[in-house]
Each structure stands twice: as C-alpha cells, then as structure tokens.
C-alpha cells in the first residue's frame, strides 16, 4: 500500500469561531497553513510541510498570543500586518525560507520569545527589535544578516538568550551589548566580528555559555573573563587571540568545555588547570603553547572526555593520571615535543575512541601500552620512538578503521589477529622493523583502502589474495625482502590508483595484465630483478602520472603504444637493457626524458636510443672539457684536478 502525505482538507477547519488553541505539531500537512480562526490564541503548527507566504490577513487575529511555525516550508516576507498582533508573546518562525523582517515587528511589545533562525533573512538587523524590551529570547542565527549589531539591542535589559551565530555580521560589537547583564547564553559565532573583547565582558556574571568562535577577534583574552564564575562552556576557537591565557581564567571551576583552539595563544599551561574539576572537553590545539603539562591534569576531572593539545610545542611526559576517570574518549596530542613512556592509565581506558600521538618523541615498549579498547576507531602512533612488538590484543579492538604506526622501531611479526579488524580501512606500519612473511589474515580486511608496509624486513612472496581487496586504492610494499613474482592476476585490484613494490627482490616478467589496473598516481617497480620486455598493456595506463621501472633487467623496445600515455609527470626507465626507438610522445617536459626540439614536438620522427644517448654524452664531455681548459688557463698550476671518467656512457635507458 502506498502511503500518501496527509493534505489539509479545505473544509475541516471552517466555522470554528470559538477555537482558541490548535495543535497540529509533527505531522505532514501541506499547503497554506490554517489561520481563519477569529478567536484563536495559540497556534502550534511546527514540523509540517506548510508552504507559501504567511498571509497578510494574519494581522486580523488580534488575540493571537502564541505562534509556532518552525520546521515548515514558508517563504517570502513576514507580513507587516504582524505588527497588529499586540497580544503576541511567542513567535517562532525558525527553519523556513523567509527573507525579510518588517519594521512593524517592533510594535509587538509583549513579545518575550522571538525565533527567526535558519531562514534566508538578509540585510541589517532591524533596529526596531530594540523596542521589544520584554524579550527573554532572541534567535536570529543561521541567516544572512550583515553589518553591525544595532546598538538598540542593548535596550533588551531582561534578555537571557541571544543567538546571532552563522551570519555575516561584522565590525566591533557595540558596547551596549556588554551591558546585558541578564544574559545566560551568548552565541555570536561564525560571523566576521573583529576587535578586542573589552573588559566589560566581566559584567556578564550570569553567563552560562559564551560562544565567540570563527570570527576575527584579536588581542589578549581579558582577565575579567575570570569573573564569569557560572560559565560552563567557552568557545573562542578560530580567531586571532594572542598572548597567554590570564591566570584568573583557570579559576573557572564550573567550566566544562574549553575551546580556544586555532588562535595565536602562547605560554605554558599553569598548575591551576588542576582546579578545573568540572572539565569535560579541553581543546587548545593549533596555538603556540609550550612547556610541560601539569602533573595533576586529569587527576580531579573524572568526567574528562576530550583532550586536544595538538600542534603546539608542549614537551615532557603526559600526566600519569590523565585518564584516571576512565571517561576519556579522545586523546589528541600529536605534533608536539612530548617524550617518555605513555601513562599506564591508558591501558585500562576502555572508553577511548580516538588516539593521536604521532609526531612526538614518545619512547617505551608498545607491547603492553594499550589494552582492549572496544570503542576505539582511530589509533595514530606514527613518528615516535616506540619499540617492542604489536600485541595480539589489538585484534580485540573490533571497531578500528584507521591504524597508523609508521616511523617507529616496532619489531617482530605482524600479528595475524589484525585480520579480525574487519572495519579497518587504513593500515600503515611502514618504517619499522617488522619481519616474517606477509600475514595471510590481512586478506580478511575487505574494507581496506590504504595498506603501507614499506621499509621493513618482510620476506616471502606477495600473496595473490591481495587482489581480492577490492576497495584497496593505495598499496606500498616497497623496501622489503619480498621474492618471487608479482601475483598472476593483479588486474583484480579494481580501485588501485597507486602501487609501489620497489626495492624488493621480485623477479620474472612484468605481468601483461598490469595494464588492466586503474592506476592514476604511481606505478613503481624499480630496484627489483624483473626481466623480459615491457608489456604492451602497460600503455593502457593513460592517466598514470609517475612510472618507474628503473634498476631492473628489462630488455627490448619501448612499445610505440606508449604514445597514448599523455598524463605522465615522471618516467624512469634507467638502468635496464632497453634498446630501440623512443616513442615521440616521450620527449618533452616529462622528468627523466630528453626535451624535444620544436621541430621534434610536431613530427613523427623516431630517434634511435643507441645513437641519441652516445651523441648527447659526447657533446656533454666536449663541453665539460672546454670549460675546464678555459678555467685552467686562468688558474695557477695545480689548483684544478681533471675529473676521472670511470666508465663510458651506456646506450641503454
């Protein structure tokens, strides 16, 4: 049975002359909304599909006190007749497509609640809103207002909640706004405000939430912000604040969420941070903070769920009781100068979902540093100094999608238990000391997108099951000790765009079906012992940017079909036994090839490799000799030693 959206019957709401309250909330009614009730006082029509303009006749319902029309599809202007609704106390038109506010709205002087957020309102905020002196809540966020906040807003002395986020408001904030001493929530984030935050912010002592994110505020954070003793959430992110965080700030013991990230703040984090026992989220990343983290940070914050200290210059060890409350979900401290072993409390923190420790100088044995973390999604330990082996317990972290541990000194075999991480998409273990054969269990990772095991001591053959990893796009097995041949049918890699198996001990021919891949960025087969001719099918990789088959034992001609490969940025055929003609298209701006002359660019002339290279070499030798002889004539005897030519130019590429 097909479900139809209920449509408002044309007759159902007629002749209801005594109706005072109508509630149609959270249905799927559509069309113009019903309003022809002369005595209606409360109209609840939110969360429907009512569309079209708000009718001008709504001003005739003089007794209306409460209108809720948010989450509909209303459009056009708010009619000027709304100014006739002198009894109106609550007006919510949020989440529609309305585009202008009439100045007559300022006549609705009994309004206590005005919500127009998430529409298409533009231009300046009407100064007449300052006449609504009974307003308790004003929501204008998520629109396209521009210019400054009208100073008349400062007349709203009983205002508790002010939302102006997500507009294009600019210029400094009028001083009268800082006199709204009853404010509990001030959200002016995601605008273009600029200037300093004045000391008068300390007058807003009832503030519970202060959100100034994504603006152009600059200068120091005023110490008077420490007067806001009931403040629970402070977001100063993505501005241009500078200097150190004032000492009084750390006395905000009720502060739960602290977000001054992406600024130019500097200095150390003082011991007083330990006083903030209500902390749930601390995000100070991308600043210029330095020094050590106080040792008792986290000790008295049992509800701490998020720590983001990344992209600063912090040093020393992480506090030993950083996660003593075991509520910690995200530990993001990458790109600092942290040292020493990891806190032991991490091992028992089962709430962890994201851990980023990369690009530091952490040390210690990684084997038992972590336990079983059933909620863990991401673990980045790259570019540290960890040693030890990977624990089989990692196989119990079933929700991991991203595991990156490259650039350490982790050794031993890659545990087969990693094959149990069936959600894994990124596995990067390169630049370590892993040994043994390629773990068969990796073939279970059907969602794997990026696999990098390069620069280790892995041995054995490259298994054929890799071709079954149909979502794999980046594969790097370079700089290992793999032997044998390439898998017989690499064409089963349906999405592979980059393949690097260079610097191994692979042999045999390059499979013809390698041309069936969809490689776009890189194919690097260099520094192996591949032999035979270049496969004709290789020319099918017409969008490949970099091709490197150097340092092998390839022979024969470069196929003329390579003239189809027009996207190359770099090509390297060097140190092989290739002979014959260079396809015309392979000269020019491509790295590793001889530049074309202007005539050669537009002709089909083929150049013999065995002739071109010796001639170029001879010309180069003559040029060097002439320069040296001229220089010797100007120099004193014995100052210049002629270079020794240890071997002749090779005619191969």
UniProtKB/TrEMBL annotation:
Transmembrane annotation, as ranges: 607-629
Entry-linked SMART domains: LRR_TYP (SM00369)
Any one GO MF annotation of this record: protein serine/threonine kinase activity
Cellular compartments annotated: Membrane
Keyword terms of this UniProt record: ATP-binding, Glycoprotein, Kinase, Leucine-rich repeat, Membrane, Nucleotide-binding, Phosphoprotein, Receptor, Repeat, Serine/threonine-protein kinase, Signal, Transferase, Transmembrane, Transmembrane helix
One BP term from GO: post-embryonic development
The reaction(s) this protein catalyses: L-threonyl-[protein] + ATP = O-phospho-L-threonyl-[protein] + ADP + H(+); L-seryl-[protein] + ATP = O-phospho-L-seryl-[protein] + ADP + H(+)
Enzyme's top EC category: transferase
UniProt KW Heme keyword: no
EC number: 2.7.11.1
InterPro entries: DNA_repair-toleration, Leu-rich_rpt, Leu-rich_rpt_typical-subtyp, LRR_dom_sf
GO annotations of cellular component type: membrane
Membrane topology: Single-pass type I membrane protein
Main location: membrane
Protein name per the record: non-specific serine/threonine protein kinase
Lineage, uppermost ranks: Eukaryota, Viridiplantae, Streptophyta, Embryophyta, Tracheophyta
């Amino acid at each position: 049975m097909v479900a139809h959206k209920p449509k408002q019957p044309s007759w159902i709401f007629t002749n209801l002359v005594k109706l005072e309250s109508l509630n149609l909330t959270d249905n799927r009614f559509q069309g113009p909304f019903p309003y022809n009730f002369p005595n209606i006082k409360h109209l609840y029509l939110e969360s429907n599909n009512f569309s079209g303009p708000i009718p001008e006749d709504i001003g005739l319902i003089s007794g209306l006190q409460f209108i809720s029309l948010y989450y509909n599809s209303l459009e056009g202007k708010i009619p000027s007749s709304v100014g006739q609704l002198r009894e109106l106390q609550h007006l919510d038109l949020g989440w529609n497509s309305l585009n202008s506010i009439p100045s007559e709205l300022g006549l609705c002087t009994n309004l206590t609640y005005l919500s127009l957020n998430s529409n298409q309102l533009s231009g300046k905020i009407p100064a007449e809103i300052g006449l609504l002196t009974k307003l308790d809540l004003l929501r204008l966020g998520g629109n396209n207002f521009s210019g400054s906040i009208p100073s008349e807003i400062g007349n709203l002395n009983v205002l508790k909640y002010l939302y102006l986020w997500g507009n294009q408001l600019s210029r400094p904030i009028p001083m009268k706004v800082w006199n709204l001493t009853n404010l509990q929530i001030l959200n002016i984030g995601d605008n273009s405000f600029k200037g300093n935050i004045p000391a008068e912010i300390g007058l807003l002592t009832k503030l519970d939430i202060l959100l100034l994110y994504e603006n152009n505020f600059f200068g120091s954070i005023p110490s008077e912000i420490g007067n806001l003793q009931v403040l629970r959430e402070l977001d100063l992110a993505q501005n241009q604040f500078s200097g150190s965080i004032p000492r009084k700030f750390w006395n905000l013991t009720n502060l739960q969420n602290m977000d001054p990230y992406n600024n130019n703040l500097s200095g150390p984090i003082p011991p007083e941070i330990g006083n903030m026992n209500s902390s749930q989220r601390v995000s100070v990343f991308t600043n210029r903070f330095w020094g050590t983290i106080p040792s008792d940070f986290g000790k008295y914050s049992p509800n701490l769920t998020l720590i983001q200290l990344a992209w600063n210059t912090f040093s020393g060890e992480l506090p030993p009781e950083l996660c003593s409350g075991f509520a910690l979900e995200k530990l993001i401290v990458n790109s600092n100068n942290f040292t020493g072993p990891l806190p032991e409390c991490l091992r028992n923190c089962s709430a962890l979902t994201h851990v980023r420790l990369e690009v530091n100088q952490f040390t210690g044995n990684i084997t038992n540093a972590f336990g079983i973390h059933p909620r863990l999604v991401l673990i980045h330990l790259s570019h540290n100094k960890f040693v030890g082996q990977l624990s089989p317990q990692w196989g119990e972290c079933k929700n991991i999608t991203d595991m990156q541990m490259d650039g350490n000194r982790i050794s031993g075999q890659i545990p087969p238990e990693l094959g149990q991480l069936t959600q894994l998409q990124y596995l990067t273990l390169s630049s370590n000391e892993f040994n043994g054969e390629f773990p068969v269990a990796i073939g279970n990772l059907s969602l794997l997108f990026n696999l990098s095991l390069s620069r280790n001591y892995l041995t054995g053959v490259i298994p054929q099951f890799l071709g079954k990893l149909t979502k794999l796009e980046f594969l790097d097995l370079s700089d290992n000790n793999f032997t044998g041949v390439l898998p017989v049918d690499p064409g089963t890699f349906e999405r592979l765009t980059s393949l690097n198996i260079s610097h191994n001990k692979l042999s045999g021919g390059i499979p013809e079906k390698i041309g069936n891949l969809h490689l776009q960025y890189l194919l690097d087969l260099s520094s192996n012992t591949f032999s035979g001719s270049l496969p004709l099918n290789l020319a099918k990789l017409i969008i490949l940017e970099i091709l490197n088959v150097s340092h092998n034992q390839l022979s024969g001609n470069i196929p003329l079909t390579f003239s189809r490969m027009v996207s190359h940025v770099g090509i390297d055929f060097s140190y092989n036994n290739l002979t014959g003609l260079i396809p015309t298209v392979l000269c020019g701006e491509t790295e590793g090839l001889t530049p074309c002359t202007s005539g050669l660019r537009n002709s089909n002339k083929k150049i013999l490799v065995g002739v071109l290279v010796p001639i170029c070499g001879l010309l180069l030798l003559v040029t060097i000799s002439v320069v040296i002889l001229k220089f010797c004539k100007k120099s004193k005897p014995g100052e210049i030693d002629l270079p020794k030519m240890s071997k002749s130019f090779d005619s191969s590429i």
